[in-house]
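We emphasize that the prediction below concerns an isolated chain of 215 residues; any contacts that depend on oligomerization or on bound cofactors are therefore not represented. The input was used exactly as deposited, without trimming of termini.
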Amino acid sequence: MPRNAETTRTQLIRAAERLLAERGVDAVSLREINREADQRNATALQYHFQDRPGLIRAILRKHEAGIDARRTNLLDEIEAGGSRSLHRFAFALVLPEAEKLSDRDGGRAYLRIVAQLVNSSQPPVDPIEEVYASESLKRWRDLVQPEMSPVAVYPLHSRFTALRIMFVELARRAEMTRRKDDRLFASHLVDMIAAILGAPISGETERLLGERTGR
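Result of the prediction step, given as a token string:
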């Protein structure tokens, strides 16, 4: 890609990160993003990304590559060490995402955008296909499953619930004033995610699941 084209693409992504995070993934026009990126060519965004979903995918992929590599390393450590506690798996899930809180190149905006996608009933980009389909998350899901109750894995889908809550909490933190240190927040979030993954299934839940299966 020519240097000028690469610079334009970077400017568009950074402008989109700011606006979409602050105002919502559906509330900002492509024209506004072009203007925020100081692009005189009205078709610059369409040229580089085609449409809104293409732009959002570019934002996600900008951040997911590093997150994927970081989580892969943490999973390697778990497998090499032999200890496969739910807390360690929660740590491998949360930490690579939580580190985006200190990433000044759009990290906090990324967290807010992902949470919007996760909570939307009709997101412009499917977060399951884009965020949850990363190689490290596929591997994480496979590795954590044997440590969980079969009912929690399916039909309760506790892994998906843990992911969703993680992104909601990270986005809430990202909306706040930047802190000097996010370690306590991240550690508490790891504890919460571990608790979700290992939450016991009550007799009432078992009964209701049985009624649904029997229909």
